[in-house]
Amino acid sequence: MALSEAEWRQRLSPAQYEILRREGTERPYSSPLNDEHRAGIFACAGCAQALFSSRTKFESHTGWPSFWTPLERAVGTRADRSFGMVRTEVHCSRCGGHLGHVFDDGPKPTGLRYCMNGLAMTFHPQAA
């Protein structure tokens, strides 16, 4: 999904733009999605692609919504060498929006912790 910077700025709030398009990070414990526990899907705030199922969400006590695996083909990763360290950045596979980072300190079955910015996502509750 290719949009101009002006189109992204029009589509997103300033805080969402900073995270999704400029690889920013929200303050820990600032997102309501951190406390979202209903069944449903977490989707990209930039393009609405489904990213994570609530079935894979867990409480990481880090202050950001965390998941042990994404939906199939929903995200991509790349090396992030900012801040003098090497981390694995996670982005939406459709629009390229920055979502957060993945770490190897998560629960079974994957052992991964996809630590996502809540402002980079929206939540769609499962229909009753």
TrEMBL record:
Family annotation (InterPro entries): Met_Sox_Rdtase_MsrB (IPR028427), Met_Sox_Rdtase_MsrB_dom (IPR002579), Mss4-like_sf (IPR011057)
Enzyme kind, highest EC tier: oxidoreductase
GO MF, any single term: peptide-methionine (R)-S-oxide reductase activity
GO cellular component, one term: cytoplasm
Catalyzed reactions: L-methionyl-[protein] + [thioredoxin]-disulfide + H2O = L-methionyl-(R)-S-oxide-[protein] + [thioredoxin]-dithiol
Coiled-coil spans in chain: none
Highest rank taxon of the organism: Bacteria
Keyword vocabulary terms for this entry: Oxidoreductase
Domain MsrB, chain residue ranges per copy: 5-126
Assigned EC number: 1.8.4.12
GO biological process, one term: response to oxidative stress
Signal sequence coordinates: none
NCBIfam families attached to this UniProt entry: peptide-methionine (R)-S-oxide reductase MsrB (TIGR00357)
Name of the protein in question: peptide-methionine (R)-S-oxide reductase
